[in-house]
Amino acid sequence: MSDSTATANRAVAEVHHEHPPYQRHHFESVDQQFDATNFAMWLFLLTEVMFFGGLFAAYLIMRNWYYPAFVAASHQLQIFWGTANTVVLIASSFTMAMGVWCAEMRRKSGLVLCLSLTLLLGFAFLGIKGIEWHEKWEKHHIPGPHFSVQSFLNPASDVEVHKQYPDDKPLAPDMAQKTEEYFFLYFAMTGMHALHMVIGVGILIFMIFRARAGAYTTGHVTFVENFGLYWHFVDIIWIYLFALLYLISRHS
Amino acid sequence: MSEQTRNGEHEHHIVSPGIYVVILCALLVGTAATVGVSYVDLGIWNPIIALAIATTKAMLVVLFFMHVKYSTRLTKLTVAAGIFLFLVLISMTMADYISRAWGRW
After folding, report:
1. Domain that holds residue A237
2. In degrees rounded to 5, what are phi and psi of residue A65?
3. What is the DSSP letter of A183?
4. Is the confidence metric ipTM above 0.90 for this complex?
5. Contact B68, B62 (CB under 8 A)
6. Model pTM?
7. B33 at A interface, C-beta within 8 A
8. Is residue A20 part of a domain?
9. How far out from the chain centre does Cα B1 lie?
10. Partner A contacted by B9 (CB < 8 A)
């Protein structure tokens, strides 16, 4: 072994100070590692903001263009289910935040409980979404060859909705066609949101197994913390979807 | 890097469960309020109030559930940049549509 290599090895040994096993070698401290991964997670979330932002921009413009169609079509959504799902998702955000706290406090059983509750609420959200989508399927409100404008040409034919919105006037045939645009955006936005929920549920199941093995309760909370950011972000998207798709067209 | 991290003073802040409970309650109240307001006919104000309540709820989630209030300046700046870029995206798109074909579709 040459002298220079020996010197280098000694230098490495000297700078290789004591640190926890989860700290990567290229970080000076655990805090620096935490800040760097936190920053990276936020950058990912910014790309998500831009992604959903495009859908929101499309909704904003389309709603202004085909206003009567968008109002009539949004009356098809049931505010009860939308509210229920909002409460479910807010509760799941709370249990997730409590999960992060449990991980910080190194409470293993608490963390497993919180993650399991979050998972349960995630499934509840997807279940309710399934009920709503199924209704759209039954009423031929899914864009495509089977799409029907019957509810909008003749509102009285849609007894349930007509009872809630007796003032809804029939739309002209060309405007009634534009309700398909609303449902296209409805399925694109809630579908993309649900896809994020499905991915989140998958990661939650993985995390529950890892948490039971004690992976996150030894001081290394980065994974739980960053997953929490993702989960809360998905919650925020729903808060806006609920307001824009369900609520703002009730009186119009 | 912010001064906090350079000095190693930026203690990893742990948000207490009490704050989470308060935020949970505020979010539930906000949800009830936005649903309640949607049943009142306020004309042009309906979407404005709905979006204002949604934004308030989102801010609570970002600041407390996502710990941005207790984060480094780098994180705060990143979040602010995201909101700013989103507003640029919306306003530039709207400027384009309004100045070209508004009312002529």
Report:
1. 48-247
2. -70, -50
3. H
4. no
5. yes
6. 0.89
7. no
8. no
9. 25
10. no
